[in-house]
User: What shape does this take?
Amino acid sequence: MIANPSQLAVTANIAEADAAKVALGQPARITFPASNATATGTVTQITPQSTLSSNVVQYPVQVSLATAPPGVGVGNTASLAITTGSKSGVLVAPSSAITTLGNRHTVVVRRGDQDVTVPVEIGLVGDTTTEITGGLNEGDQLVLPTVATSTNNGFPRGGGGGG
Assistant: This one.
């Protein structure tokens, strides 16, 4: 078999929940862990027949590379990030700042010297950020949740008795 390195493609199994968002023509970023090389590509095939792996339904997706980075060849391991949606010129907030209960979303905003819970409307949700379509203004100062830490490793303070 002769491979054409200028026409490389990556095939990956995508979990069912994610595969529902993938469409032909979507852009993708490919990373090759062995060399840390990256490339861009486009989704060119979505196989409608699912497979089952570790009780997870998956769909094979093929991404054709625009150009192959030097040193990358047939059989290399790759990692894919497919862009399923994007917007520009929108207000975004860290996803960790948003509290969701059912279909209600809120954030905490610092107004003066007070923290106020404000209902917000959301749009596209990414891995780390979420589009805010209503309820906030550019420049509003969000209060991010804090995580309580313990310096005593979870053990009560105080001396132990001995006997």
